[in-house]
């Protein structure tokens, strides 16, 4: 629950900052909202590849931690 709360507390100011920066760059509010809530529409191919690679690394780190935690609990029994 703490992880979810921290995520929301970080998400809201970052989305507001993104909206503010788009408005300062001259986009209207409609385009700013579209850019903030559909970031994949404004990404280049290289950014999408990097995003997928980082997601894969994150997934493997969760799997590795889970296996390491299971091995520790089996060793103690």
Which key phrases capture this entry?
elongated, mainly alpha, 77 residues, 3 helices
Radius of gyration: 19 Å
The amount of helix comes to over 70%
Overall structural class, as computed from helix and strand content, comes to mainly alpha
**What are the secondary-structure elements, in order, as H or E?**
HHH
Largest sheet data: none
The rough form would be described as elongated
Unreliable sequence segments: none
Distance between the termini: 29 Å
Count the E strands: 0
Quick recap:
The protein is mostly helical and 77 residues long. The protein is 83% helix and 0% strand.
Structure description:
With 77 residues, the protein is mainly α. Helix content is 83%, strand content 0%. The longest helix has 32 residues, at 45-76. The two termini are 29 Å apart. The relative contact order is 0.06. The model has no long low-confidence stretch (mean pLDDT 84).
SSE layout and pairing:
Blueprint (H helix, E strand, L loop, with lengths): L1 H23 L4 H9 L7 H32 L1
Helix pairs in contact: 1-2
């Amino acid at each position: 629950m703490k992880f979810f709360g921290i995520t929301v507390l970080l998400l809201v100011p970052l989305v507001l900052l993104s909206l503010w920066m788009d408005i300062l760059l001259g986009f209207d509010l409609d385009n700013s909202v579209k850019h903030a809530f559909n970031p994949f529409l404004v990404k280049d191919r290289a950014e999408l590849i990097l995003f997928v690679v980082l997601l894969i690394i994150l997934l493997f780190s969760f799997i590795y931690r889970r296996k390491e935690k299971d091995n520790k609990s089996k060793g103690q029994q």
